[in-house]
Amino acid sequence: MSKPLNVAILGATGAVGTELLALLAERNFPIAQLKLLASANSAGKQIDFGSQSIEVEEVQVNSFDGVDIVLASAGGSTSKQWAAAAVEAGAVMIDNSSAFRMHPQVPLVVPEVNPQAAANHQGIIANPNCTTILMNLAVWPLHQIKPVKRIVASTYQSASGAGARAMNELKQNAQQVLDGETPQPQILPYQLAFNLFLHNSELDEQGYCTEEMKMVNETRKIFSDPKIQITATCVRVPVLRAHSEAINLEFAEPFDTESARAAIAKAPGVKLVEDFAKNYFPMPIDASGQDDVLVGRIRQDISNPNALELWLSGDQIRKGAALNAVQIAELLIEQDLVRVNA
């Protein structure tokens, strides 16, 4: 692709960090040197990358010296703590947390939707929330044909959205229930095995949780449309990996379903999956490990002639986090937007 770059993964031992490593290898990302950074608790751990065994380092102020791109996936507080050091060292930080998403000087990028925004970076580019990315990939192709007036989204979010420990807890709790025991969740706020609950992020004065407002505010920023009306209800469901979403889209005029299918079928980053005869549509089990967001069951809203319904499933760890970040890094190379320290 270009001259090899020095890359650092901040939060290398987490679920998204692990996926970042796999994707860098799969996509033959041009790497001269790879640094794996984490907290002191993970320092010294050996992680395989191709034919190499790389030791995880405790992140420090000088960790970013000579680094071209930082892929950060260690949480908002960690990103805020180390962003300045990374930028001052000359690196571009692609941040997976919510720390900088709504900062007016930080681009919020989904490469299939607004790649041009990356050119405005001042050292930091934000990766949107997973639910936002999945929804935007399905909505954008239609929005380009006929602008969407209103989006009503309901999400069905897997345990992976809460991290690897939540996934393990779901498996353990499911076995406990099957064994006749009463699960005692430690990572998740409530029992998720054979249960579901509304997303437990902080509620605002209107009764919307932070996760729901991310979908609202981030989509407006990515679409460059502050007036688009969006409402969301986010739910955690007992699925290990991959989120699903039910989306209702209202337009100013009717949007026939065949045109919508054609637009989805040719759009990058999504795959049309629907068999009405077999009642077969996107499922998390099919989306897990896949780059594309699976979209289907596109149908006319019988309550509104100007609205369409659709359903999607997408891998939250992959396209909803790690893949989008790697694609942003590739975009920086393609647009010559990264200073090469090597």
Main features:
29% helix, 8 helices, globular, Dihydrodipicolinate Reductase, domain 2, 15 strands, six-stranded parallel beta sheet, 2 domains, 342 residues, Rossmann fold, alpha/beta, seven-stranded mixed beta sheet
- How would you state the average pLDDT, rounded? 96
Q: In the CATH scheme, what's the topology name of the largest domain?
A: Dihydrodipicolinate Reductase, domain 2
Total count of helical runs of at least 4 residues: 8
Q: Work out the number of β strands.
A: 15
Question: Which stretches are low in confidence, meaning pLDDT under 50 for 5 or more residues running?
Answer: none
Q: How big is the Rg?
A: 20 Å
Through-space gap between termini: 15 Å
Oligomer: single chain
Order of helices and strands: EHEEEEEHEEHEHEHEEHEHEEH
The major sheet is characterized as: 7 strands, mixed
Total number of domains: 2
Helix-and-strand structural type: alpha/beta
Order of strands in the sheet with most strands:
10-11-9-12-15-14-13
Kindly estimate the percentage of residues that lie in beta strands according to DSSP. 15-25%
Query: Helicity range of the residues?
Result: 25-40%
Shape call: globular
